[in-house]
Amino acid sequence: MTKFLKSSLAILISASIFLSGCSGSPQDSKADQNQNQDKNVTAVEPSVTQPNIDLSKVTPNENGKIMVVMFHNFVSSFTPSKYDDGQYTTTFNDFRKLLQALYDKGYRLISLNDLLNNNILVPAGCIPMVFTFDDGTPGQFNLVPDGEKLVANKESAVGIMEEFNKTHPDFGLEGTFFVNLGLKVFDGDGTVPERLKYLIDEGFEIGNHTMTHIHLNEARSAGEIQKEIGGEQKRMYELIPDYKIFAFSLPFGQPSKDLQEFVIKGNYQGVQYQNSAIMEVGWDPTVSPVSKKFNPLSIHRVRATGIKPVQADLDWWLQNLSRNEQYISDGNPDTVTIPKGKEADIDNNRLNGKKLVVY
Ligand SMILES: [Zn+2]
Predict the structure, then answer these.
(1) Which of 106, 207, 289, 301 could form a disulfide with 178 if both were Cys (CB 3.0 to 4.6 A apart)?
(2) For ligand 1, a single-atom ion, which residues have Cβ within 5 Å?
(3) Ligand 1 centroid, distance to 106 Cα (angstroms)
(4) What is the set of domains in the chain, with CATH numbers?
């Protein structure tokens, strides 16, 4: 019986690897490159990764869809009430299970900045995914003392991702936190600059979500919008000098009716700001950054599955989005590989110096 279970498990595991067709670690190839560079006294061109992949097996599709996941609250346990059924709340345990499930399905995290710049470095056969977190809630991240230092609470999304990263370093430790610097930001130990710096040092990104989470559609003037969005950049420079915010997430998912140009860029008290990416409150995956349909000023997101699952949340998409509709990496950072017949969908200006490969 035990033998039978073991062999069944082995078959299941190899089947899932075969299905996802995703293995290897980008860290490994980076380490190889560094070693090669160390051996040379003079600087060398970074070696180009040219993985030998069987296109018919891996079936890369770098024009496929990518899920940009939107998280809000994280808690240890949750009791639904008539005011809050938990649609925007995830438990720590469910988040732990989610990371493992995503990893097993072949998803690997990339940063929002890398999505925007078509700089997607995940192994062949893997599917890139972006994590975003709105509102700066303490369940996403808070600092706790550990001896002399301050570290991420293990009962927070960041703490859980750090733990997962120890055993699955190739999953990626990436995410963008859209905060309101005029409100509470990751309540816990440490100062606000200490909290932000911890995230930035770990490679996470900080995004703009307005100073006080306003309804943009109710803002009456350009001045009001610039105070909320430019004020956030100004405050960021005071907290973390030189940190330029490049992405904005719409509070309540509401765009401005007539003053959209000031959501994109403007000036507040002498501080310039510019948002190259604007995140919607989501319902579906985004198109690939090389697609003609890609609009960085309206990036669609998929909401994380909460205590109460809803249609078009992450679990729903994981069941309803087929593998061949998704972005499947060719593993080569220098090429964009797509199946034959999809050439007309590609915006050549967005290839960013990469070679288009059609098979
Ligand atoms: Zn929000």
Answers:
(1) 207
(2) 134-135, 251
(3) 29
(4) 53-358 (3.20.20.370)
